[in-house]
Amino acid sequence: MTSAQVIAIFVLLTTTALATANKDWGYGGGNNGGWGGGGGFPRHRPVEDHYSPRKVVVGGNQTHWQFGFDYTNWAMRNGPFFVNDTLVFKYEMPAGNSSSRPHSVYQLPDLRSFLRCDVSKGKMLANWTDGGGEGFEFVMGKWQPYFFACGEANGIHCNIGKMKFFVIPFLRRWNF
């Protein structure tokens, strides 16, 4: 991959992240933030959301980490995410003779591996036993793209089961 392609991919991912960061933006009508009833100023999430790290259960409290749920769409709807936020992966261990499938969590090294669901180049973060109970926690400690996928069935859970998503956490704002 050439440096121009890497830059183009980075710009695309950053633009996507920025576009979804202000998804609740809107004019007036209910924003009574001390500026005369809204008057065209955008509404944002409450300020406290931007200052303290949060724990986010991947897929939400009801869904967890499971086959067939679109996690890429979930990540877009539940952003923005920030550096030092914690992602919690919860999933059930398969029982002896049940039809449940085992799951794992892999961090993939790049966009190409993510798009192809090539888990062979990824790093296993959690195996099929780590998601029980309180789940596996991953802290996004750096400002970088994070690509996550289920590594079971040689990438089938990632590809067909939609068990993949990426996050580019934002830097937290300073309290002025």
List the helices and strands and how they pair.
Layout: H1 3-21, E1 55-57, H2 60-63, H3 71-78, E2 86-89, E3 105-108, H4 111-116, E4 123-126, E5 136-139, E6 146-149, H5 156-159, E7 164-167
Parallel strand pairs: 1-2
Antiparallel strand pairs: 2-5, 3-4, 3-6, 6-7
Key terms:
176 residues, alpha+beta, three-stranded mixed sheet, Immunoglobulin-like, globular, single chain, four-stranded antiparallel sheet
Summed up, what is this model?
One of its GO terms (molecular function) is electron transfer activity. It is built from five helices and seven strands, in the order αβααββαβββαβ. The protein is α+β, with helices and mostly antiparallel strands.
Describe the structure.
With 176 residues, the chain is α+β, with helices and mostly antiparallel strands. It has a domain at 54-176: Cupredoxins -  blue copper proteins (Immunoglobulin-like, Sandwich). 23% of the residues lie in helices and 15% in strands. The chain contains five helices and seven strands. The strands form two sheets. Strands 4-3-6-7 form a four-stranded antiparallel beta sheet. It has a three-stranded mixed beta sheet with strand order 1-2-5, with no helix packed on it. The longest helix is centred in the first third of the chain and has 19 residues, at 3-21. The protein starts with a helix and ends in a 9-residue tail after the last strand. Mean pLDDT is 78; it is low at 27-45. Residues 1-21 form the signal peptide. InterPro entries: Cupredoxin, Phytocyanin_dom. This is Phytocyanin domain-containing protein. GO terms for molecular function: electron transfer activity. Residues 54-171 form the Phytocyanin domain.
